[in-house]
Amino acid sequence: MAAGKKPRLAVWKFSSCDGCQLSLLDCEDELLAVAEAVEIGFFLEATRAQVAGPYDISLVEGSISTPRDIKRIQKVRRQSRVLITIGACATSGGIQALRNLSDVDAFVNMVYAHPEFISTLATSTPISDHVKVDFELRGCPIDKYQLLEVLNAALNGRKPDIPAHSQCIECKLSGTVCVMVAQGIPCLGPVTQAGCGNICPGCERGCYGCFGPKEAPNPAALSGRLLELGMDLRQTRHFYRSFNTNAGAFRDESARLESIDG
Amino acid sequence: MAKTASRIIKVDELARVEGEGALRLRIRDGVIRDVKFRIHEPPRFFEALLRGRIYSDAPDITSRICGICPVAYIMGASQAMEDALGVQVTGPLRDLRRLVYCGEWIESHVLHVFLLHAPDFLGYEDAILISKDHPELVATALRLKKLGNRILEVIGGRAIHPVNLKVGGVYKIPSRAAIRSLRDELQWAVETSLELVKAVSGFEFPDYSYDYNCVALKHKDEYAICEGRLVSSAGLDIPVSEFENHFGEEHVAHSNALHGASDTGAPYLVGPIARYNLNFDQLSPLARTAAQEAGLPRKVDNPFLSIVVRMVEVLYACEEALSLAEAYEEPDEACIDIVPAAGEGFGCTEAPRGICYHHYRLDEQGRITFARIMPPTSQNQKQIERDLWGVVERYMELPDDKLKWRCEQAIRNYDPCISCATHFLKLDVDRG
């Protein structure tokens, strides 16, 4: 970034629900300060104004799911000094990656009367499958305070303080009683990365995996416990198959359970 | 602009909407040849990927259709499943649902009115630029929007994709103290919304009108949000389960959204104007008076006035939320007991953008065998194209850049959620 000049920010959208970029607009108390600290070069959800690249920081929401997306993400990468993906779609392929397990033509036929109008890939994949990504921010949706931390870090050229440990650690740190131990509620917390503020256990609900696998998880051990708690193989498999269905450890564990189920 | 010129006006990437879309207009010799929305938001196949899942997965999965109105999906899916499984949520749990839905209306409407739509009326590229000249206005709007999110957090646990709502009720009962803690800010919000209705009504509104066939939910006791029968200005009055007998989807080549159309193939209108026109008498006295003082006619036919109607609905939602928060008593049970079974169910609620319809079939284990969802923006899409046609005819004399902006403004009248419709916009005006 040139001295004295504001860093230029771009926000890009691929296949997604818009919720992660909305997190930026949901920073009601910080939005104007963020807008003061950067030059918004491209952010379609917020402004018509566009400044041509290159961009100092690009935030990328959404997964790659069409032939056009593949070309577009290459262009975004070429124009971006730092590329940060935001949310489960961009970092793992999102809920729409459930199609990776099925015949996409059957999906198109199920939803659309004229499948020939639809241009789509057979898979929904994360941005990092296609271009180099400098940082991946997890969540479905992302946590807005983690987003501010990542932006702050990028603006100051430091490493963001985003823990890769499990939800369990977060529950312990906040004094939330374990819902699985105390109440026998199935919970993905032991294998899921922290970051949401352990909101589900706080609501007496098991974690359902919005932030994807934690570092070095052991899902096979967790699946054993989930089965003991009364989930059947199909329910356990589906537990891993949601917003991060295509994230390595979740994908592999659900495939393993499927092979047992036959 | 000479009438003999050939013009192509296009917007490749429509801004200040949720999702990806484009518009293309083709005009020759001063006559519109074609108006097309393109939705290139990639298809995500929700209806297909729900098959085989247990009924209780539907609210969380469908909420990911839209980050701006997740409650509409959670609630519509829950209601349809409850219908299929023969249970009904009543009493304080029902009140909680209405309260959290008010939170979504406030958050979504204020986002649209001030951050996405007001810049068109005030001639700014975005709300950040408005804040340079009118810092108080933007700060007030952000505070109001934050309150909407706060309601979602207190009841739902999270503003975007709430976690505490489920088929049959909630996971954890919000405490009386937590709900009561919303009251002070809601009192501020009612007064502030009144002022903001006035502020928005002072905008300059382009001249265009259309005799809309409005479609909305109607409830015997209240301004319909979470439930009701479907009524229209053409005299339709049906239960939600008959929706598909009267409305359909068309799949057109230029869009990944399925366009909604009535059984006659004619466009129809859902959303704030439709609700206001059909249910005006059920607004609160304060909201009715505010609407009249803002100069809104009893029947709104200028779509550019939607921004005022949206703000009147914010006022109503704040009042309604305040009275629900004041009356709130904790329910005895967090959730109704549900036994999975085969069945078919229908659900429909008033998302901020209009009716959002759900239809599911379950097998005997409670697994989904069929899913159909009609988001409001899909239903409005045909009407949006019709409006654009009329707006371009009316404002043909404008130079391309002004005409283009006017078209964008006309599209934003609908607060289109392209992610929902999967499906939206580049303006591409071809005058050749």
Account of the protein in words:
- The complex is a heterodimer of chains A (262) and B (432).
- Chain A folds into two domains: 8-155, Rossmann fold (3-Layer(aba) Sandwich); 167-261, no CATH class.
- Chain A has twelve helices and five strands.
- Chain A has helices at residues 19-25, 31-37, 67-79, 88-92, 104-111, 144-155, 167-174, 179-183, 199-202, 219-228, 233-240, 248-261; strands at residues 8-13, 39-43, 55-61, 80-86, 135-137.
- Chain A has a five-stranded parallel β-sheet with strand order 2-1-3-4-5.
- In chain A, α11 (233-240) runs antiparallel to α12 (248-261).
- Chain A is globular, with a radius of gyration of 20 Å.
- The mean pLDDT of chain A is 93.
- Helices cover 44% and strands 18% of the residues of chain B.
- In chain B, the strands form five sheets. In chain B, strands 1, 2, 3 and 14 form a four-stranded mixed β-sheet that branches.
- In chain B, β12 (354-362) and β13 (368-374) form a beta hairpin.
- In chain B, α4 packs antiparallel against α6 and α11 (285-293) packs antiparallel against α12 (306-327).
- At the A-B interface, α1, α2, α5 and α9 of A face α1, α4, α5 and α6 of B.
Secondary-structure blueprint:
The complex is a heterodimer of chains A (262) and B (432).
Chain A: E1 8-13, H1 19-25, H2 31-37, E2 39-43, E3 55-61, H3 67-79, E4 80-86, H4 88-92, H5 104-111, E5 135-137, H6 144-155, H7 167-174, H8 179-183, H9 199-202, H10 219-228, H11 233-240, H12 248-261
Parallel strand pairs in A: 1-2, 1-3, 3-4, 4-5
Helix pairs in contact in A: 11-12
Chain B: E1 6-11, E2 21-28, E3 31-39, H1 46-49, H2 58-63, H3 70-85, H4 91-122, H5 127-133, H6 135-156, E4 165-166, E5 169-170, H7 176-180, H8 183-201, E6 215-218, E7 229-232, E8 237-238, H9 243-246, E9 247-251, E10 258-262, H10 272-279, H11 285-293, H12 306-327, E11 343-351, E12 354-362, E13 368-374, H13 376-394, H14 400-412, H15 418-421, E14 428-431
Parallel strand pairs in B: 2-14
Antiparallel strand pairs in B: 1-2, 1-14, 2-3, 4-5, 6-7, 7-8, 9-10, 11-12, 12-13
Helix pairs in contact in B: 3-4, 4-6, 4-12, 4-14, 5-6, 8-12, 11-12, 13-14
